Amino acid sequence: MRAICIIGSPTGTGSTALLVDSSIAGMQASGISVERYVLGELHINYCRGCRTCETERACVQRDDMDHLLRGILAADIVLLASPSYWGDVTGQMKVFIDRSLPLCNAKASETPVPPHKIGVAVAVRAGRSLAENQHIVDTFAHYFGHLGIRMVASLTTEGVNTPEDMQRQQAKLEEAYQLGWSLSRLYAENVS
Ligand SMILES: Cc1cc2nc3c(=O)[nH]c(=O)nc-3n(C[C@H](O)[C@H](O)[C@H](O)COP(=O)(O)O)c2cc1C
User: Which atom of ligand 1 is nearest to the CA of 88?
Assistant: First the structure.
């Protein structure tokens, strides 16, 4: 079983990455092979809005998005994570979502993404209320819906402004690990 984990933070050592890495540890312990990407470390251009991908199912631009789209097509499990920036996903994550249009079912009514994949949404924020993170989870649910990916779980963390804050939330890190561990079972249930 294969998973692709896409972290929408500028950094691979921040609080979002820490939380996702705990889930990755759980996935790997259950035998899942994991690819981990940090959007801030990749080169991904803005969507140009040319709509070529709606007929060609491929973007006219060649950059790191090629690799991510191939990774989504190959994975059984897709995990998307973002810290809250101004109450929403990061700019990096928004560009990734826009550039996923070659896989979207909106125009051609079907997606090239093979069936039975499952999705997981992760959101992290400094503020205390859930509502803002729920907005991020809803954005990921919308994304998964247009790729025919069944979102089976979400994980949010509030009150986390730094990696040190995240380290202090040991119960949340353990929850992330257990979520990672449970994904092979959730995948099997989704296929059957
Ligand atoms: C540009 C920017 C905007 C932010 N906006 C919000 C916000 O609207 N609400 C919030 O709760 N936290 C906000 N934060 C705090 C981050 O969500 C928080 O620091 C998070 O833990 C960063 O995750 P990272 O270390 O993975 O990048 C913002 C941080 C930055 C840098």
Answer: 8
- Chain center to CA of 10: 14
CA atoms of 40 and 117, how far apart (whole Å): 25
| 24 and 34 Cβ atoms separated by less than 8 Å | yes
Q: Is the pLDDT of residue 169 over 90?
A: yes
User: Measured in angstroms, how far is the CA atom of residue 161 from the centroid of ligand 1?
Assistant: 6
Distance in Å, CA 188 to ligand 1 centroid: 35
Scan for tokens 């191939």, then name that residue. 70
The residue nearest atom 4 of ligand 1, judged by CA position, is 85
Range of the domain at 142: 2-191
How much is the pLDDT for 108?
67
* Amino acid (one-letter) located at 48: R
Number of domains in the chain: 1
Tokens of 179: 């979520």
What H or E segment, with its residue span, contains residue 119? strand 118-124
Percent of the chain past pLDDT 90, that is, above it, reads 92
The pTM of the full predicted model, rounded to 2 decimals, is: 0.98
Q: What is the pLDDT of residue 191?
A: 87
Q: What is the CATH number of the domain that holds 67?
A: 3.40.50.360
